[in-house]
Amino acid sequence: DAGTAMSDADDLVVCPNLRAAQIYFHTPRQEYLERVVAELMRDERIDQVLWSAEFFEEEGQGFHVVSQARGRLHVRPGASGPDHATDEYGNVWSWTGNLEVVDGRVADGVITFGDYPNAFERINQMLNLDVAGHLWVTSKPGYELCLAHTLIHADGGSHGSLHVLDSVSPLWVAGAPADFGPIHAAWQGTRPENMRSVDVVPICLALLGMAE
């Protein structure tokens, strides 16, 4: 039942959050993973299934991403394989498999992402959270994930997946001091060089007088 803690009788617990869900296994095992992934891939509304390699593989590194039509991808931080590139933020990644899983493309040694902005860094960060589920699931645009006794946000805005429609939004600054520009060097009088959440946080801290 939704909202109840995992018991020894449970194989797994599903925690939906609009267009994404986390799955926690009672005992993470490769055979359980394969069964759940195969079942999820039968549903045309599922976009991607993601998991950290260290949960299910001895000496596993990096993470895996699977989709129905675009295949599989195994990604590792660093230049540890023949296929590697640097993203727009200076992070180096290696991979095996099909970059179409995350709409990735490489030009002049730089990897960029179309429908899934900054995919590698975002996936790596979320899967390495201490409280992250063993398995993450995202839905295709137009769908939300829920359990029998949970609600969806019908006819309203939604978020949670890696898709660009869930990931990119305008940044508005209103009511800032007249000397806002010099408060933090990252602002440089206009806007941060990059517009990730981690780039905007220092601006917010500066406005609140909490900058280091």
Describe this structure as you would to a colleague.
The structure is a single chain. This protein has about 210 residues and is of the alpha+beta class. The chain has two domains: about 10-165, no CATH class; about 170-210, no CATH class. It contains six helices and ten strands, in the order ββαβαββββββαβααα. It has helices at about 30-40, 55, 120-125, 165, 180-185, 195-205, and strands at about 10-15, 20-25, 45-50, 65, 70-75, 85, 90-95, 105, 110-115, 135-140. It has an eight-stranded antiparallel sheet with strand order 1-2-10-3-4-5-7-6, sandwiched between helices. The radius of gyration is 19 Å and the shape is globular. The mean pLDDT is about 85.
The sequence of SSEs as H and E is: EEHEHEEEEEEHEHHH
Mean pLDDT: 87
Helix tally equals: 6
Question: N-to-C terminal Cα separation, in Å?
Answer: 45 Å
Q: What's this model, at a glance?
A:
This protein has helices at residues 30-40, 53-56, 119-127, 164-167, 180-183, 197-207; strands at residues 12-17, 20-25, 46-52, 63-67, 71-77, 84-86, 92-97, 104-107, 110-113, 135-139. The chain is of the alpha+beta class.
What descriptive keywords fit this protein?
alpha+beta, two-stranded antiparallel sheet, single chain, 2 domains, 212 residues
Write the layout of secondary structure elements.
Elements lengths: L11 E6 L2 E6 L4 H11 L5 E7 H4 L6 E5 L3 E7 L6 E3 L5 E6 L6 E4 L2 E4 L5 H9 L7 E5 L24 H4 L12 H4 L13 H11 L5
Antiparallel strand pairs: 1-2, 2-10, 3-4, 3-10, 4-5, 5-7, 6-7, 8-9
